[in-house]
Amino acid sequence: MLRDEKWIKYALGILKSVHKGSSSISEISEKVGGSESYIAKIVATLRKADLITRDYSLPKKPDQILVKDLLVIANTYKPSNDPVGKIIKSMLESLTMPITEIW
Questions:
Q1: Burial per residue of 57-75, b for 16 or more beta-carbon CB atoms within 10 angstroms, e otherwise
Q2: Contact 59, 102 (CB under 8 A)
Q3: Into which CATH architecture does domain 5-101 fall?
Q4: DSSP-derived secondary structure letter, 100
Q5: Residues facing residue 98 across a β-bridge
């Protein structure tokens, strides 16, 4: 499933909210401004990717979560195997900026 910029924005907000101590979908939803059902879906995806634990904490430090991690999870772009696709794939792999730099 392709996810858009809105998904990434909410995922960043969720990770930040959890890092600051939010411990429920309703609390996270209130802080990031999204509907509880949409936030719950994103949280479930982030849990499957091991970026949020069952008890609403981050399993690693926020500066160890990379923008690339979210882009891979979001599956926003699947590069082809042609020369341009290979360049784009290489660029995605080189994204090593921590999410804390864009919070």
A1: ebeeebeebebbbbeebbe
A2: no
A3: Orthogonal Bundle (1.10)
A4: G
A5: 66
**Quick one: residue 35, left, alpha or beta (phi over 0 = left, psi -120 to 50 = alpha)?**
beta
Q: What is the pLDDT of residues 33-52, one digit of tens each?
A: 999 999 999 999 999 999 99
pTM: 0.79
Cα–Cα distance for residue pair 62/52, rounded to 1 Å: 11
Question: 9: helix, coil or strand?
Answer: helix
Q: Would you give the distance in Å from CA 97 to the centre of its chain?
A: 13
Sole residue written with tokens 């392709």 = 2
CA distance 102 to 93: 18
User: Each residue of 64-81: pLDDT tens digit?
Assistant: 999 888 888 886 556 667
Map out the domains of the chain as residue ranges. Answer: 5-101
Which residue blocks in 5-80 are alpha helix, DSSP H?
5-19, 25-32, 36-48, 67-74
**Residue 75 zone, left/alpha/beta (φ > 0; ψ -120 to 50; rest):** left
